Amino acid sequence: MGKYYSPQGGLPPQTHLTTERAIVTEAYTVIPKGVMTDIVTSNLPGFTNTRSWIIARPISGFATTFSQLIVEIGPGGGAPRAEFESGVEGVIFVTQGRVNLTLGGELHQLEEGGYAYLAAGDAWGLENVSDGVVTFQWIRKAYERLEGYEAKSFVTSDAEVEPTAMPDTDGAWKTTRFTDSSDLAHDMQVNIVSFQPGGVIPFPETHVMEHGLYVLEGKAMYLLNNDWVEVEAGDFMWLRAFCPQACYAGGPGEFRYLLYKDMNRQVKLT
To answer: Is residue 93 part of a domain?
Structure first.
């Protein structure tokens, strides 16, 4: 297992206790790593030697802005064209292995921690040319264009972006932002949030942004609505707008998660 957690699939034995930590409520959902087995995977159109765990999709009355997948591509697999909806933007973040990304006719090799923002309308594809499995998070959103602004595709990595400490935290709480929050070209962000042991979100955040949180490393107690839930690497949390949230990272190691949020747009009423 590398630095970032990736599901391994398989199927629990018949002696395994049925009780798990999966929770579905009107305000939030928790999908623990233990339920991401072989039998809940889906194939993806256009991909070969590939399977996916679809862990979020727009649902009426719940989160409505995005979908999120965990995608696993075996050796020689991939898709020359991955995105079929021209109005959809995306982010991929590699958690295991390495994959070739072809974007606008240019080839990029993404390894663990590799990050790509894929602008709506740009052609891109993936190929696993290694001998091992590659796994990545794939977040998709219908891009809301704003006159005078246009988001551009780019490739970077976790290692290339310096985390920013949150004010008055002495570095106990940091955010790795791959795009500038003030750039109105972007109607979403996919960041990495990091807590050192003892670090906290010291109030229940309650806001309009929907969230998808995939735990990359460590464990913590996370407040979701009225419930404190213990989460660990490989778990996924899905929050609707205005669901209160907070965090306490008890250690012993760093707690990090990949965070989706929608932002920078006016609320549509007509």
So the answer is: yes
CA–CA gap between residue 164 and residue 180 (Å, rounded): 12
For residues 264 and 82, the answer to whether their CB atoms sit within 8 Å is: no
Tens of pLDDT, residues 16-60:
998 889 999 999 999 999 999 999 999 999 999 999 999 999 999
**Does residue 58 form part of some domain?**
yes
Domain with 41, as residue range(s), is 23-262
Q: Is residue 139 part of a domain?
A: yes
Dist. CA 235–CA 55, nearest whole Å: 10
75-107: string of b/e by CB count within 10 Å (b at 16+)?
Answer: eebbbeebbeeeebbbbbbbbbbebbbbbeeee
β-pair partners for 264? none
166: which residues sit within 8 A by CB, 6+ positions away? 173, 174, 175
Q: Would you give the distance in Å from CA 207 to the centre of its chain?
A: 19
Share of the chain above pLDDT 90, in %: 98
Backbone angles phi, psi at 34, to 5 degrees: -65, -15
Mean pLDDT of all residues in 169-182? 97
- What is the CATH number for 194? 2.60.120.10
CA angle at residue 45 from 44 to 49, to 5 degrees? 60
Task: Compute the half-sphere exposure of residue 260: CA atoms within 13 Å on the CB side of its CA.
Answer: 32
Predicted model pTM: 0.97
Q: Write the CB contacts of 227 (distance below 8 Å, at least 6 apart in sequence).
A: 23
Domain for residue 12, yes or no? no
**Count of domains observed in the chain:** 1
